[in-house]
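Hi support team,

I submitted a single chain yesterday and got back a structure, but I'm not sure I'm reading the token output correctly. Could someone confirm the output below corresponds to the sequence I sent? I've pasted both exactly as they appear in my results page.

Thanks,
R.
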Amino acid sequence: MSTSANSSPASSVRQRLTGVLPPITMPFDAQGNLVKGALRGQIDFIIKQGARAVVAGGSTGEGHTLTDGEYEAVMRESYEATAGRVPFVAGLIVQSTRDAIERTNRLRDLKIDALQVTPVHYLFKPDADATVEHFKTIYEATGIPILIYNVIPWNYLSADLMLRIMDEVPGVVGMKQSGGDLKSVSDLLLRCKPESLVLSGVDALLYPGFCLGMHGAITALTSAVPGVIVRLQKAVADNDHTTARAIHFKLNALWNSLNHDNLPACVKYIQHLQGLPMFEPRAPMMRVTEAQKKAISAMLKPLID
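Hi R., thanks for writing in. Yes, this is the structure output for that exact sequence:
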């Protein structure tokens, strides 16, 4: 049965998830244990900064390191801390269709606005037909709208394949593009349905992405400095490119100061500099070094003063 754009899953999600959508970091202690109750302060900070949603279980949130039990606990704590103030997106970084469905089924009683789902990402990859079936099966089993998290280098989905997935699976309502290819972003915006979401996952290209018309962003810096990204997107919407370019280059300087191999740890340090408790990455990821702290602090100051 055909559905009008105004009542489609994509149309509804597009209205709720346009804007800055920070992926929360995980509060691990020095032994790698989750600190219970520690997510609320971060979520309060993010929402007060103007974020349009909370995303849990993504790459910045080290979702790939969580056991099934930890995943459920984190999702429930994050959901309760969000308390309906903004939409809630659950990330899924898993290796099979079955795992994606089983993890989501643990959260059946929660009102999840969307799932952010990576393609499978170990050594092997499914072909195009199997990839379509992967997203189709997850949506049919869960009934939750899906955002494709297009981030896996050796299973990076082409614009053609993502457009095909959205055509064949109405519950796939958009994607987060995490490669630095603005041509693919332009192609997606040109060819996708008007109600589809095209989100940025590239911190260094937020400004040009917003200029092209990307609807929002889920990136490390949206978690580190959410209010700054909110200001950047607003400046672009207001056609104030003098302000937007100034913010862009300051963000670029901050981005260049980070060691991307231990990016979650760097984001946690930036959050700490703004008043949140300091938490650690989960081993074997590295802690922030003293040299990193010095570089980050110098580049953060012009953004938040």
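A quick pointer for reading it: The first helix runs from residue 9 to 16. Let us know if anything else looks off.

Best,
Support desk
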